[in-house]
Amino acid sequence: MTVWFQPSTPYRKSGLLYRKFRDHFGKDGDVLVIKAPSTTPNPTLDQSIIDDAMADDLAAASAEWLTEFRDDIWGWVGRELIEGAVDHGVQSRVPQPGISYYTFCDPSGGASNSFTTAVAHSDNGTAVLDCLVEIKAPFNPDRATADVAEVLKSYDVYKSTADRYAAQRVVAAFARHGIALTHSERDRSQT
Question: Mind listing the domains of the chain with CATH numbers?
């Protein structure tokens, strides 16, 4: 039996602590996760300190004193909404005739960041992610571009959008494989 003891204050729903909680709390197995308010292991804590903290900042105090993962700092949308929209077990969807696919590429130079590409379509106004490609660094950028171009072509896509990384070098690399790449008008600072 492996023993992993990690007393910790939960923060957001990501990272090692959250994964251990999500995968093992309340489930049979060889990993025991205990979740309890601070007053359970230490009943001498002054409840008025906890009450004052809860009145001042409920989300922060709930994490600190009640061991609740925070929902207020997740990011774009809550984790529950994203999890509810995931078709678990689906790695990619087979290209279908008659569907217009849209793509976005996030190329990289191959040294430290991944090269990623998403292929999606609209189903009566609902965005459906059909394929997500990640080529982890280190990699050869020319080979990665060729591989991504083949994925795009399999969805009958011959034009894509990307960020402005390496500007014209990436546009030229995709053009060599029959894909017209344009740069997004928006950057990550625009919402």
Answer: 15-83 (no CATH), 102-183 (3.30.420.40)
Distances (CA, A) of 81 to 12, 21, 74, 156: 15, 19, 11, 31
Residue whose token pair is 């034009």? 159
pLDDT digits (tens, 9 = 90+) for 27-46: 988 888 888 898 998 899 99
Give the pLDDT score at 191. 44
The pair of structure tokens assigned to 141 is 């950028």
Whole-prediction pTM: 0.59
Tell me which DSSP letter residue 99 carries: P
Q: Is the peptide bond before 138 cis (omega within 30 degrees of 0)?
A: yes
Q: Which pairs count as long-range contacts for 173-181, CB under 8 Å and 24+ apart, including other chains?
A: 173/141, 173/142, 173/145, 174/105, 174/145, 174/149, 176/145, 177/145, 177/146, 177/149, 177/150, 178/149, 178/153, 179/149, 179/152, 179/153, 181/105
